[in-house]
Amino acid sequence: xxxxLYIFFILILFLCSPNAFAxxxxxxxxxKLLFPKGIPVPENTDYYQPYFDFxxxxxxxxxxxxxxxxxxxxxxxxxxxxxxxxxxxxxxxEKIEEKIKYLGSGLLxxxxxxxxxxxxxFFPPKESKEFKEEVLGFTTQGIGITGEKTIYGFVIKRVExxxxxxxxxxxxxxxxxxxxxxxxxxxxxxxxEEALQAQMGQKISLELISFEKREPYSAEVEVIEFFKETLSxxxxxxxxxxxxxxxxxxxATGADFQRVLYYYMxxxxxxxxxxxxxxxxxxPLAAQEIANMFxxxxxxxxxxxxxxxxEIMLKAMFSPFHYNGEVAILIDKKSASASELFAGTxxxxxRAILIGQEDSAGKTFLxxxxxxxxxxxxxxxxxxxxxxxxxxxxxSGLEPDFLVPEDVELFPFVYKCFKEYYGK
Length: 424
Description:
With about 425 residues, the protein is α+β, with helices and mostly antiparallel strands. The protein has helices at about 1-15, 30-35, 50-65, 70-85, 100-110, 125-135, 165, 190-195, 255-265, 285-290, 340-350, 410-420, and strands spanning about 120-125, 140, 145-150, 155-160, 175-180, 180-185, 205-210, 215-220, 225, 230, 240-245, 270-275, 300-305, 310-315, 325-330, 355, 365-370, 375-385, 400-405. The chain is flat, with a radius of gyration of 27 Å.
């Protein structure tokens, strides 16, 4: 146990500074402190090879896919340094230490990538799965129901559109009375939320009272994988002006946006507010799918230049309907990636004005995931993003056309911006 603690202490120092082991940097002999009997020297270093093989795999993917060249000398120097400072302490371990391998791989990626690149990184198998679920916007837990316990039962506030609960007819404002035959009135909020959780494929039995019909019903719902609905909307209080907030882009955002936009168009909408504040982005194709509803087929939108690949220009594709009215897009410092792609493209084509209190994040790159042989993953920047005109997105972000003053009512201010910019 002490040996493992020693190794992790060494790793922390190693990660913090490339010169952490230079004796002149310390007033004490670090090796004697950690290894009073002397630095262990392995009799046989063959056990290094599995670590080196994995580092080679990481390097190979970065060499092929990373948007900038990576150095073989950095790899070679890293192997030597890592073996001397870390692997030699394992003392002929026959079984590979996964944590040591993964920590080394993360450090290698950090040394190979461009210093200002905050996106590229290494993810071990478990973290890889969790990261994909977060980025792609789907869940593998729960049944898509959120709500609050009251004296009348558990009142449902939201039912995810693509969950099995929604398919079984459960709706917001319905009340859950029993979960797997347990009375919810005898349970705390935390106990109810825990009872509504299950593993993939498991089923939960619910007894409810319908808000619409005012009568009891029962449902057995299954935990399935689904994309979360990331849209929300509130009334603006201004005739003809409607509001859609996109909290995150995922593979289903385009379909959700299309459904809401079509409904608003039937209500004679002539001004649309798209709120991208706090939206950290998602798949670029989601931005393209939404843009399809604002441009003719074939319109150039934005493009990427991946290493060893031809230029990838994304164009507007078929949409069953198009909105041709006025558009305002709300941005802030957390609007990034696909949010900036969409907002920047809309403004470049003079299809929207940008409104906010600050510039957007300036984090517009094509980021791709690459699976490794053991289930680990590399997230790599594979290309900068370019507007259709050839202009690159600025690292400082998108600058709003209209700055929102402090303590101003948002919707009247946006309406004023519409009137000023479009002149009607």
